[in-house]
Design goal:
Length: about 180
C-alpha cells in the first residue's frame, strides 16, 4: 500500500481501493455462507447416488429401472437433511423461501453431478451400458447417450422439485389459529 507523506495516511486512490475490496469481500462472504450448505449437501447426495449406482452395477442390477426409485429415496433424504440443517442454522429467521431454495439448489447440484458421472460411465467405463439398458424396454430404439443423459437430468430436476415441495410441508411454519373445542 502506498502511504502519503503526511501523517502515514493512505492516499485517496488506495483508500478507495481498500474500501471497495472490503465491500466486495463482505458480499463474497455473504454469498458463500448462503450457498455453502446446499453445495455441501448436493455433493454428498450425488456421492451417495453414484455409490448406489456402482453397487447396483457390481450385481448387474443397474439396468433395472425399478431400482431407480431408490434414487428418489436417497435424494429425498438428502433434501430433507439440507432443509432441516438450514432450519436449525436460521432458527426464528427460517423462511419458506429460504428452505425451498436450499433444498432446490442441493438437489440440482446433485442432479448435475450425477448426470456428469452417468455420461462418463456410459461412454468410458461401460460403452455397452445403453444397449443393455434399452434391451430392458424390449424395443428397437435408436437413442444416443445424449438423450439418455438428458432424460436422467430432467428426471432428477423433476424429482428435486417435487421432493423439495414435499419436505417443505414438514418444515413450514403454520399460520393456523388454534381453535377451542
Amino acid at each position: 500500500m502506498v502511504y502519503s507523506l503526511k501523517n502515514n495516511e493512505l492516499c485517496p486512490i488506495n483508500q478507495f481501493i481498500s474500501r471497495t475490496l472490503w465491500k466486495y469481500k463482505k458480499i463474497y462472504i455473504h454469498i458463500m455462507r448462503k450457498i455453502a450448505l446446499p453445495v455441501r449437501f448436493g455433493i454428498i447426495i450425488s456421492a451417495l447416488l453414484v455409490a448406489f449406482f456402482l453397487i447396483l452395477s457390481l450385481f448387474g442390477l443397474h439396468t433395472k429401472p425399478m431400482f431407480s426409485l431408490l434414487n428418489g429415496v436417497i435424494t429425498g433424504f438428502g433434501i430433507y437433511e439440507t432443509i432441516r440443517y438450514y432450519k436449525l442454522e436460521q432458527g426464528k429467521n427460517f423462511t419458506y423461501t429460504g428452505g425451498f431454495t436450499v433444498g432446490l439448489v442441493s438437489g440440482f447440484i446433485a442432479t448435475l453431478l450425477f448426470t456428469v458421472f452417468f455420461l462418463f460411465y456410459a461412454t468410458e467405463i461401460d460403452p455397452l451400458f445403453l444397449e443393455k439398458l434399452l434391451n430392458v424396454f424390449k424395443g428397437d430404439y435408436r437413442v444416443g447417450v445424449g438423450l439418455v443423459a438428458f432424460v436422467v437430468a430432467i428426471m432428477g430436476f423433476a424429482t428435486t422439485v417435487v421432493l423439495t415441495l414435499t419436505c417443505m410441508q414438514l418444515f413450514k411454519n403454520s399460520n393456523n389459529v388454534a381453535q377451542n373445542v
